[in-house]
């Protein structure tokens, strides 16, 4: 929906940003406890010879089975939440006035109460599908990923602000500036 672009815009403007997708990648690096738990829960074949998680294979499992997805989320989400909460506490201690946390599953993880304001990034279904297809995902993979989240309309309704990311990066930046700096 444009989360990476929005995060980059905020960083360019000097805002502190933590992206939970980055945190999720960090906590499954070789030697991390989360990776061991994933191996125990889903099998050692999900880790390659270099000790790296086979993310595509794990995704195929968890996006086709809600119970498997819940098991993975129970391993990852508490750790991810702890990391972003610690980062926010650190920024508060530094006296930063504003910061952003990018959380694709904000409402699904019941994290919305932790924030003063929520901005939802949204685009049309066609654009969302095209962006996900550009990552090399099949129509079935796209359907599974979208189906694992709340509908965009509900996210929009539950947010304080909505940025429509259908246009170019400049359009997204203008909308963000109006919300954040005005």
In short:
This protein is mainly α.
Task: List SSEs in N-to-C order.
Answer: HEHHHHEEHHHEH
Say what the CATH topology is: Rossmann fold
Straight-line distance between termini: 23 Å
Query: How much of the residues is beta strand, in percent?
Result: 5-15%
Provide the helix percentage. 55-70%
Number of helices: 9
How many β-strand stretches?
A: 4
The CATH H-level superfamily is P-loop containing nucleotide triphosphate hydrolases
Supply the CATH architecture: 3-Layer(aba) Sandwich
Overall mean confidence score, pLDDT:
94
Mass-distribution shape: globular
**Number of structurally distinct domains:** 1
Gyration radius, in Å: 17 Å
Low-confidence stretches: none
Spatial strand order of the main sheet: 1-2
CATH class: Alpha Beta
Could you characterize what this model shows?
The chain has helices spanning about 5-10, 20-25, 35-40, 55-60, 65-95, 125-135, 140-145, 150-160, 170-180; strands at about 15-20, 100, 120, 160-165. With about 180 residues, it is mostly helical. The chain has one domain (about 5-180): P-loop containing nucleotide triphosphate hydrolases (Rossmann fold). It has a two-stranded parallel sheet. The protein has a two-stranded parallel ribbon with strand order 3-4. Helix 3 runs antiparallel to helix 5 (about 65-95). The longest helix is centred in the middle third of the chain and has 29 residues, at about 65-95. It is globular. It starts with a helix and ends with a helix. The relative contact order is 0.16.
